[in-house]
Amino acid sequence: MQLYELLDGKVQTKLENVEIKGLTDDSRKVKEGFLFVCVKGGSFDGHNAAADMIEKGAAAVVAERDLGLGDKQIIVENSRSFYGDLCAAWFGHPEKKLRFIGVTGTNGKTTITNVIKKLLTESGHKVGLIGTIQNEIGERIIHTDNTTPMVYDLMKLYDEMANEGCDYVVMEVSSFGLAQYRIGPTHFETAVFTNLTQDHLDYHGSMENYYQAKRMLFDRCDYAVINTDDEYGKRLFSEIDCEKSSYRCCGRGDFYADAIKLRAGGTSFWLCCGEKSYQLNLVMIGMFNVANVTAAVAVGMKAGIGIEKMMEVLEKYPGVRGRCEVIPTGKDFTVICDYAHTPDALENILSSVKEYTTGRLMCLFGCGGNRDRTKRPKMASAAAKYADLLIVTSDNPRDEDPEAIIAEILTGLDGSKVPYEVVIDRKAAILKGMQLAKAGDVLVLAGKGHEDYQILAGGMHIHMDEREIVKECLPLLECK
Questions:
Q1: pLDDT digits (tens, 9 = 90+) for 329-388
Q2: pTM for this one?
Q3: Core vs surface per residue 273-308: b (16+ CB within 10 A) or e
Q4: 389 SS3 class
Q5: Taking the CA of residue 336 as centre, how many other CA atoms within 13 Å lie in the half-sphere pointing to its CB?
Q6: Which superfamily is assigned to 94-316 in CATH?
Q7: How far apart are the C-alpha atoms of 376 and 364, rounded to whole Å?
């Protein structure tokens, strides 16, 4: 591809007729004829490697300042943002061939995107899905390492989706993806805001920065669906100018849930929009899923899906892997696996399960290493509000000492009368929880959800699927 085609008139350079054989912001991937984009990261600044990249054979570099490289440098205001434009151009602007629905917020993204995909698919659309658990092109599953892929990989994925006949893409849009301009020039037909609670402060530094990152999505959408039960949602609703609708579970909104009944076998409520109400009986459990489904219906109506069709699909939908997922045991107690890894998410799952627990509510959880340390005691406090017994264990310790992480978690139980046990090894902790469980008890395994691995020191991943662990523990129980 010629350089002028990549630049698309956005920047002038004397190198316009130079052929570009590839582009990257990773100095390790530069080859002869590549365009290297200098991006400043947390530990490495590509500007410092620019001269070496020219020596390595790069045709030119994109930078934010004069690096003394003459005609070999292209100066832009924001190289990270510009890299997204370049990647889109490299793949022939696939983002212009698709319709996008984006969901952002601390909790609920995975369930809402999966529900929306199901609604669109059952209405005759071929849909791409980009999210935490996996990426999908129709029914084809693609492994993912990030909730929002890096921008080159994202544009490549868009290109595959367009070539395979997708018309819609439903996407979890993370705060990292927004702050790091990973979504390139993607414009969203509809964007959803779920909520904002403490998470990722190790990266963003403050809740205000975290909010502002999430808010970026709503500068590039035509229609917004916002949870105004959430304080940040109320703020966002008042700040944006695009067409918008509110959704609520704790009061009236443009879309809201009423007469909610939570049960062990599902959830029922009246879904209200305008002057009309529709009774809905879900297999999915929990108040949070009432909110998730209400948001999805708001999106579906904007996409032109009939409400009767949505009701039919939703009443059969079993839920999402690792989100309030019941793991079969054949015993007289219940084991639930959930991804809750923030204080708010833990409160949501436990408060919902508490509604129908006839015995004790037991919660097993930990906190990730090399992540926001301030939320560790808050996780313990959140769990202690609803659980009758806590088992504190490891999550993904990464490069931190699991015992040190647990010690910080336990400070959140100071003054609490809730009994707890510490079992550092997560597999042993799950066995302990199942051994302690009695008839009518519910054991919530929080934090891992869909993940089938644990991350140890040095980034080493070991296989750990809680569904498999529960199954392996069953023969070890004493005639329960």
A1: 999 999 999 999 999 889 989 998 998 899 999 999 999 999 989 999 999 999 999 999
A2: 0.84
A3: beeeeeebebebbbbbbbbbbbbbbbbbbbbebeee
A4: strand
A5: 28
A6: Mur-like, catalytic domain (3.40.1190.10)
A7: 14
